[in-house]
Amino acid sequence: MGRASRRVNAAVYFLQIVVAFLILFPLLFAIVSSIRPLNDIFKYVSPVTWRTFLPTGVTMEAYEHLFTERNFGTVLFNTFYVALMTVVFGVWIGSMAAFAFAKFHFPGKHVLFGLVLITFMIPFEVIAIPLYGLVNQLGWIDTYYGIVVPAVANGLVIFLFRQFFLDLPDALIESARMDGASWVKIYTSIIMPLSKPVTVSAALMLFISQWESFMWPLIATRSKQYKVIQVAMSDFSTEHATIWNELFAASVIAFIIPILLLLPLQRFFIQGVTNTGVKE
Predict the structure, then answer these.
(1) 107 assigned to some structural domain
(2) Whose CB among 44, 175, 198, 209 lies 3.0–4.6 Å from 51's, allowing a Cys bridge?
(3) What is the pLDDT of residues 51-96, one digit of tens each?
């Protein structure tokens, strides 16, 4: 390797380190600030020294307050429950709809699929008010149903499953039908076991989308009983002050949990996304 090549590689590595630092700096600052006393959080910000990144006095008071005074355990349960129910029913309904779009022939199929594609291109703010009216008429405001059901039918999930199912050979389904297998049997015993990568991808998308959801849970819930983590974090900012150490502690928890799920499953996630190209 020549000297010019080594210089180019060194420059690339340096640039990657700088970009990584810029990306990780907010997370590092949040973690450090969450274990500082409230009065020390911005004490060492300017000028930037080693004390900016290494706390001199470590305290877990912010995390303790979250679970003893803020009832954060209930908030985490609500968020997990809502995300899990959305994943279970979202994968089930999305995969069945995609199976119909990929392997069945019926009038208006392409028009309906076009409408499905449009659904995940429309900003949520456009449908928030009519969606609230519909959920209110059903009596689901301030219930788990009101948070979960609108997120179950996801157009992007249907698209991913449909593109994956198009790659599955029709001969596999035809041979199962000739052996007397029902469509339910084919779906549960043949199609879904072969769809592990795209199922993991869809499940992670639904989970992270619901975990990070703020606007709709804020609109659809009124009581603390159904409060989720993104809405709960808004409680740390009041008219007169912001409880920064507890806000940073809640932010760290909200960030770490999806990462812990994504890291061990990233291989399936990438495989599921890359295997769903544009097909007809």
Answers:
(1) yes
(2) 44
(3) 777 777 788 888 998 898 888 999 999 999 999 999 999 999 999 9
Distance CA(74)–CA(232), nearest Å, equals: 10
Q: Does 31 lie in the same domain as 71?
A: no
Global pTM?
Answer: 0.85
Q: Which domain holds residue 105?
A: 64-274
Q: Do 123 and 158 fall within a single domain?
A: yes
Q: What is the distance between the alpha carbons of residues 221 and 78, in angstroms, rounded to a whole number?
A: 12
pLDDT-derived band at 276, boundaries 50, 70, 90: low
- For residue 237, give the 3-state DSSP assignment: strand
Count of structural domains within the chain: 2
- Asked if 101 and 161 count as a contact pair (C-beta separation under 8 A), the reply is no
Residues 48 and 84 in one domain: no
| Residue 194 CB burial class (10 angstroms; 0-12, 13-18, ≥19) | middle
Per-residue pLDDT for 24 more than 70?
yes
**Per-residue model confidence (pLDDT) at position 278:** 46
Write the CA distances from 82 to 88, 133, 147, 216, 260, integer angstroms.
10, 21, 7, 12, 18
- Is the four-CA dihedral 34, 24, 84, 211 of positive or negative sign? positive
Whether residue 182 is found in the same domain as residue 135: yes
CA 279 to chain centre: 26
In this structure, are residues 117 and 155 in contact, taking their beta carbons and an 8 Å threshold?
yes
User: Which amino acid appears at position 169 of this protein?
Assistant: P
246-275 burial by CB neighbour count: b if 16+ within 10 A, else e?
bbbbbbbbbeebeeebeeeeeebbeebbee
d(CA 152, CA 94): 8
Q: What is the chain's Cα-based Rg? A: 24
